């Protein structure tokens, strides 16, 4: 086998021990390639454990495929949690991976992708080799292949539609990819798969896995206290919402499956070609791809966080469907309570939201578009004129430059760009970065809840003191924020 793609400093002893114990906390952190069989597996694979000398440990499925190994049909690498970017602290790699998940290389080039994350093409390729053991193109090809394999196995979509949904430009490339990587045609897997895995109203149903621990109770209650009327519904085990993508509406239903360390998602949307983007956004919204083990080990080094981490070790950062929507809600939530901000956002939806035909009860409206808010009279939703103008100017900026929120390569640049808008300060900018842009080190300094959780006095020096304390939490200040907020909400703890 070709083993050129083994740059990551994976600890062989640690990896093999995780393989022996089928340790779920390592699922997605590495893959085991078996030299004697030519197959690569997840750490949780139920197959007989190979001898250590026959194992090569690789940081990503793409690295394994590039090295000439085939995916295991028992443990199904296509459903592994997507953790490779967490093996380093390269936020640029994480951002590029999210763009690849959303189809950036289906039509665009690696140079285009590099430009979107503020790097040159050569530098981006070097970072991918360093952290993932594969090039951006190999990562994109692998994700396309594995997503197609999941669709074949878990749905009854015709193979031509599977190829379209996974991002293949032709049926020939789709078939060739399977023959090269699996040495089997796509139709051979359909014979082994379920005959029906449809969701409601003709939608699709997929299973999205994560690496435990995961505190669904925290994520659920965080969403529940902020649920938008006629856009979101939250119950004990379900999260539902309407959404708009590419100018067309749909809705999704997410249900937690704790026994499987997974969520089942039902997606109702008319364009199959957008399915990979939708799945990627759901994973980000639920924060399914973070490495909780690494985060917790890092944060527990500070005694202030030892208690919250031990008490509820699966606290994630609840994300969002769309960064623009999250930013609008963050602006509306300035200087008001969570309940007050949610009420204002619900008024905005009632005033400007477009109807979603055929939606279930409670999901009848879509969140307003940038152009709707930019052109609206907002004087009747109950906010000061200055905030009305901020909502309109921010929406006009996003309407003019859709990549405005996503373009900056570093957290500091994100915060600086947002704070350049009159009316947005460091708290709002970091909150948007943390929840909307998946920046794990974003830190909403001067937050009243953090001041209370840290036992600080609220004064002019509290900001400096908080930043000094939080320096120990890098690069996971966002997760530290969630742990501290959770310590103030015992009702959000696991049932």
From TrEMBL:
Coiled coil location: none
UniProt xrefs under SUPFAM superfamilies: Ada DNA repair protein, N-terminal domain (N-Ada 10) (SSF57884), DNA-glycosylase (SSF48150), Homeodomain-like (SSF46689), TATA-box binding protein-like (SSF55945)
One GO process term, biological-process aspect: methylation
Catalytic activity: Hydrolysis of alkylated DNA, releasing 3-methyladenine, 3-methylguanine, 7-methylguanine and 7-methyladenine
Needed cofactors: Zn(2+)
Keywords per UniProt: Activator, DNA damage, DNA repair, DNA-binding, Metal-binding, Methyltransferase, Transcription, Transcription regulation, Transferase, Zinc
Every HTH araC/xylS-type domain range: 94-192
Molecular function as annotated in GO: alkylated DNA binding; DNA-3-methyladenine glycosylase activity; DNA-7-methylguanine glycosylase activity; DNA-binding transcription factor activity; methyltransferase activity; sequence-specific DNA binding; zinc ion binding
Cellular component terms (Gene Ontology): cytoplasm; protein-DNA complex
The protein's Enzyme Commission number: 3.2.2.21
Pfam families, per the entry: Ada_Zn_binding, AlkA_N, HTH_18
Enzyme class at the top of the EC tree: hydrolase
Protein name per its UniProtKB record: DNA-3-methyladenine glycosylase II
Taxonomic source organism: Emcibacter nanhaiensis
